[in-house]
Amino acid sequence: MSNKPIRKAVFPVAGLGTRFLPATKSVPKELLPVVDRPLIQYAVDEAREAGIEQMIFVTGRGKGAIEDYFDIAFECEITQRERGKDLSALEGTRLAPGNAVFLRQQEPLGLGHAIWCARDIVGDEPFAIILPDEFMKGAPGNGCMKQMVEAYEKVGGNLVCALEIPMDQTPSYGVIDPGARDGALTEVKGLVEKPKLGTAPSNLILPGRYILQPDVMKILETQEKGAGGEIQLTDAMAALIGKQPFHGVTFDGRRFDCGSKAGYVEANLALALEREDIGAHIRDFARAELAN
């Protein structure tokens, strides 16, 4: 099994974002902003903070704007420079040549299939997976993927982010069957994708952050459809349990489900309240609204 460092991250961004129609009719859901930065930017920043160098975006038809976002904004940059405007807001939006790879998932066959589409780019290295609509907010300099990479450097193998939720919400997620616990690390004995209500082995779910060995690609290659008629990543990961080390890492931070409207609004409010430029105004506005 590989002990190589985590240099690559896969971002599955081919989804249609139908829960946010009509906004996502022409704008990819990953480009919806939380205050003034799109979700995909937060995800890429999280990967960079963890030392990841190459970003692999698995896109679909109609998602070309994501590729444009990480390119040079020539007209914008020239105009801003000519007017003596500050360009610092654009920092991090341009990825270095060769550090951004874009490929397509031609059919919506599930998360497992999206990851498998990146097999030739991943090669024989362990790699990270980040789902951008799961917005994971850690302390400055200690994001979710950084916490996971630090855990990987200790135990190796495969890791998933673990998050505790109420048991009645478990049917919507992949759920961990837990073994021994050691601080933030939990041994993973099994994984269940979207269990029926009352059947989940724990309330520890998988909120969209993974570090996996490349062996998972061989499993995905021949895997049959699972829950929802899709090729589930959870099923492929479950096949690695018992063959390779597998742990959950409890995230020290906050999670916002920006795939839902409520979670998206919560993320905007939480980050706006922290901002020096608008925080006080938003706080006063919220208090006034609650008083009405």
From TrEMBL:
InterPro entries: GalU_uridylyltTrfase_bac/arc, NTP_transferase_dom, Nucleotide-diphossugar_trans. It comes from the Bacteria. One of its GO terms (molecular function) is UTP:glucose-1-phosphate uridylyltransferase activity. Keywords: Nucleotidyltransferase, Transferase. The keyword Hydrolase does not apply. It catalyses: alpha-D-glucose 1-phosphate + UTP + H(+) = UDP-alpha-D-glucose + diphosphate. Residues 13-271 form the Nucleotidyl transferase domain. SUPFAM superfamilies: Nucleotide-diphospho-sugar transferases. Its EC number is 2.7.7.9. GO terms for biological process: UDP-alpha-D-glucose metabolic process. Belongs to the UDPGP type 2 family. This is UTP--glucose-1-phosphate uridylyltransferase.
